[in-house]
Design brief:
The complex is a heterodimer of chains A (247) and B (413). By secondary structure, chain A is of the alpha/beta class. Chain A has helices spanning 45-52, 74-79, 96-106, 111-125, 140-152, 170-185, 197-203, 221-228, 233-242; strands spanning 2-13, 17-29, 34-38, 60-65, 68-69, 81-85, 158-162, 189-194, 206-211, 214-219. Chain B has 2 domains: 3-41 and 177-410, no CATH class; 58-164, abc type-2 transporter like fold. In chain B, strand 1, helix 3 (69-77) and strand 2 (82-84) form a beta-alpha-beta unit. Classes of the chains: A alpha/beta (247), B mainly alpha (413).
Chain lengths: 247, 413
């Protein structure tokens, strides 16, 4: 379970002064649910997710993940989170197997555990063919699969995806979306950020629209459609972000 | 501190670095090659040039001296110089290095020698030119001998003993043990090389493990694992330290090998011909290489350890600020000059260790290493230097951990 309460993060910038990258953000995600964080570039999605993954510390407000506080129990939070972002790359000079094993070790797994889990995940994602090759020579799809395996090796209860389909071709992106859905079906708590409207429509149980660091609207797809009198997600988004008639 | 995690991070970084060509070059290839290249490359060329100049008999011209045929004839027979015909433009010819020196024998010189005082002989040379100096040396020696012979002859005429003007002789003899001579000669250059290689050995892994990780996007991946950041930075630090120490280790091994090979080549009985061919200067200089105090070398290693820690921590901290490998390079390259300066000052003759200099990082190392390699042990200074180096190293390491915990540094956009 994820619960964010009034999460706020401010940065200092020499030119622009104080920037509120995340401004009083509160939401809740239950196990078996996918929460979609929809926003334009620079809206505050990445900052919010980095706060949840304890990569950044909130200026004010708090959040708990699987019952652990992101500030006080940061290490336990990370032990329960699988974090996958467009910016989380692989070690090019390691093989896929070494990469996965390294993160297994960092998560305190035994060698036997790591072997068994690597085999299972490689079966699921069809990775055996390139498991012992170095990551630097991988195609985007192979990289993405290895990254997924890395996030899954410690079997976290909460999955955080930050624009995981950014820059991927259609087939690879579809595979990721399918995988995220499987995570939910296995009862994991999932939060998924994107600026692609169609992905949100297809995937998310609850949608939060974020703009300028603020969470402007939240609801199910049906709920948002009803509230704004539009069927198309893009129209709803523009209404909320650009118009004064947003609730 | 979780040593299992630190170990995991270290082993992974080790594997990663050993697959990186840039790191391998800086911690293995360069340190291994630097000593042999310096000894055999630079040393051989330098001694060849000097010996060539020495073997060549310097050409000189004699000006005037028409009424001193005896002196001119003897000078022409002299083996130290080769007399050629004088021309009007002799000054220009010295400048053009066609001839090395000129000597003016004044009118009435030989008559003066027989009678009373002879007018002074003038030697013209080209200041600062090695071959011109050899010409002057030859001429000066000739006239010194001439003067002495004249004195002896005059004394003999008056039936006075030669000891009248030369009541005693004096000689000098070296009593410094060979390792002290060696320690003083190469004691300066060894710490200098150690300091530089320690730093370059730390530099490349430090950049690769921080700025390089940021650039490749693996830093964020690593940070979302459930380990304390202090453990990560410590594992990384240990690898950077290993790089630094291994650079030094490879340099010392290669230096030892070079010294043995060079010693055998230039001083060995079977290779005496070779030594002769290369010249006496080379043969005399090389046996000094292995003649540094081996215990001193152990001392040097112990003193270098905290400095290697300091380098590793500083290189790590500074490259953490950089967003890319290139940016890190532009920060660390100028730092190299800052590090070379105290090391160079340590080579200068005449600077001796004192309590204040013992607190100056790097300079103190460079000075104490020179002392230890020549078998001098000032325990009080050694204690101050080791202690202060440890303090500097601890501060730098603390700073590295602090920096790694700063999110504005790690996620600098």
């Amino acid at each position: 379970m994820i619960e964010a309460r009034h999460l706020t993060k401010t940065f200092r910038d020499k030119k622009r002064g104080e920037i509120r990258a995340a401004d009083d953000i509160s939401f809740r995600v239950e196990p078996g649910q996918i929460y979609g964080l929809l926003g334009a570039n620079g809206a505050g999605k990445t900052t919010t997710l980095r706060l949840l993954a304890t990569l950044l510390q909130p200026t004010s407000g708090s959040a708990t993940i699987a019952g652990f506080d992101v500030v006080r129990d940061a290490q336990q939070v990370r032990a329960n989170v699988g974090f996958l972002a467009a910016s989380t790359a692989l070690y090019g000079r390691l093989t896929a197997r070494e990469m996965i094993a390294y993160f297994g070790q960092l998560n305190g797994l035994s060698d036997a555990d790591i072997r068994a889990r690597t085999k299972r995940i490689a079966d699921e994602l069809d990775m055996h063919e390139f498991l012992d090759r170095r990551c630097e020579k991988f195609s985007t799809g192979m990289k993405q699969k290895t990254s997924l395996a890395r996030t899954l090796i410690h079997d976290p209860a909460v999955m955080i995806f930050d624009e995981p389909t950014l820059g991927l071709d259609v087939m690879t992106a579809r595979a990721i979306v399918k995988f995220v859905r499987e995570c939910r079906n296995r009862g994991k708590t999932v939060i998924y950020s994107t600026h692609v409207m169609s992905e949100v429509e297809k995937l998310c149980d609850t949608i939060g629209i974020i703009h300028d660091g603020k969470l402007l609207a939240e609801g199910t797809l049906a709920g948002l459609r009803a509230a704004h009198g539009e069927q198309d997600m893009e129209e709803i988004f523009v209404k909320i972000v650009g118009g004064d008639d947003a609730p | 501190m979780n040593w299992k995690i630190i170990c995991t991070v270290y082993l992974k970084e080790l594997k990663d670095s050993l697959r990186d060509r840039r790191t391998l070059i800086s911690i293995i290839v360069v340190p291994t090659l630097v000593m042999p290249l310096m000894t055999f490359g630079f040393g051989t060329i330098a001694s060849k040039v000097i010996n060539q100049a020495r073997e060549e008999t310097p050409t000189v011209v004699i000006l005037d001296g028409a009424d001193s045929p005896g002196v001119v004839a003897r000078l022409q027979e002299s083996k130290a110089v080769k007399v050629v015909a004088a021309t009007e433009d002799w000054k220009q010819r010295i400048a053009d290095k066609k001839i090395r020196a000129a000597v003016r024998i004044p009118a009435g010189f030989e008559a003066g020698l027989k009678g009373g005082a002879a007018p002074p002989v003038m030697i013209y040379h080209y200041e600062g030119e090695l071959k011109s100096k050899f010409g002057v040396d030859g001429l000066e020696q000739f006239f010194r001998e001439l003067r002495e012979r004249t004195v002896t002859e005059r004394l003999a005429e008056k039936a006075l003993p030669a000891t009248l003007v030369k009541p005693f002789e004096f000689r000098r003899e070296n009593v410094a043990p060979p390792e002290k001579v060696g320690g003083n000669l190469i004691g300066g250059i060894v710490p200098y090389l150690i300091i530089i290689l320690c730093f370059t050995g730390a530099m490349y892994p430090a950049m690769d493990l921080t700025a390089g990780e940021k650039e490749r996007g693996t830093m964020e991946t690593l940070l979302c694992s459930p380990v304390a950041r202090g453990d990560i930075v410590f594992g990384k630090f240990l690898l950077v330290l290993s790089g630094s120490l291994s650079a030094m280790g490879f340099m010392l091994i290669s230096m030892g090998t070079t010294a043995l090979v060079a010693g055998a080549m230039f001083a060995g009985g079977g290779a005496a011909k070779m030594a002769q061919a290369v010249g006496p200067a080379k043969a005399a200089a090389n046996p000094l290489l292995p003649m540094i105090d081996p215990l001193g070398l152990v001392g040097v290693l112990a003193m270098v350890l905290p400095v290697a820690v300091l380098f590793a921590a500083v290189a790590l901290t500074i490259s953490l600020f950089a967003k890319s490998y290139k940016e890190a390079q532009s920060y660390l390259a100028p730092l190299m000059i800052v590090i070379i300066m105290p090391a160079v000052i340590g080579i200068l003759p005449g600077i001796d260790l004192n309590a204040r200099l013992a607190l100056v990082p790097l300079l103190n190392l460079s000075l104490v290493c020179r002392e230890m390699l020549s078998g001098v042990w000032h325990w009080n200074y050694i204690a101050i230097i080791f202690g202060s180096s440890c303090v500097y190293a601890a501060v730098a390491l603390w700073l590295a951990v602090k920096t790694f915990n700063r999110e504005d540094v790690i996620f600098r956009a």
